[in-house]
Amino acid sequence: xxxxxxxxxxxxxxxxxxxxxxxxxxxxxxxxxxxxxxxxxxxxxxxxxxxxxxxxxxxxxxxxxxxxxxxxxxxxxxxxxxxxxxxxxxxxxxxxxxxxxxxxxxxxxxxxxxxxxxxxxxxxxxxxxxxxxxxxxxxxxxxxxxxxxxxxxxxxxxxxxxxxxxxxxxxxxxxxxxxxxxxxxxxxxxxxxxxxxxxxxxxxxxxxxxxxxxxxxxxxxxxxxxxxxxxxxxxxxxxxxxxxxxxxxxxxxxxxxxxxxxxxxxxxxxxxxxxxxxxx
Length: 280
Prior knowledge:
Blueprint: H1 50-68, H2 71-81, H3 92-97, E1 101-105, H4 115-134, E2 141-144, H5 150-159, E3 163-165, E4 180-184, H6 189-198, E5 208-213, H7 215-222, H8 236-244, E6 246-250, H9 258-261, E7 264-268, H10 271-275
Parallel strand pairs: 1-2, 1-4, 2-3, 4-5
Antiparallel strand pairs: 5-7, 6-7
């Protein structure tokens, strides 16, 4: 998935790919002039065979069961969700305990995509379970990927009455005024930048918690321009966030599907750090 140009942003697909979340984290910067997806929300209401819906739901539940027993989820539960915040103001534990909404971008199609897509959805289910235990204000869980089908929508929304597939392509530029966890497994760099740009104010940026590709990896690639490193692309906010956000890596413990959770980190934005950033 790519964003074309520096102006209006739109989801894009490289040929042959099933969705943003189904690929590894190592990738080239987004470039213009790619194939654009023609997305119509009516596809979410296309006729389905109930047997096919039940089969997909069964596959997603199998994925949830596998991820629930995995080392990666055991680590998250033990080190983050069951941990104490120690009384400090800006910690990942405290930030997650204040989350009111979970937004999931870029899973790819649960129906047509590779197994990584369903494992990433499974982690979204488990994240919602754990956040609901910590945050009394936690409400809905929103999903979007232009690759979603009517089968995907039925499977996702059957998981919980709080799960909803969005019918508007926000291009990841969702503005938020409340503490929100954005789970964006292996999205393109330009999509993280789009989210950051939409919330690039001193009041909004601390509301973001982002679980996705390691920003430190972007910093290592683009942090210093030289003859040995590519010039940073025009992702000003992402490069700045890589410098100033607090990052907590999530080890994947050699998960059975290597492309599902590799190179992921939580990122959050302490108010003290934001105060020193060049934000509005």
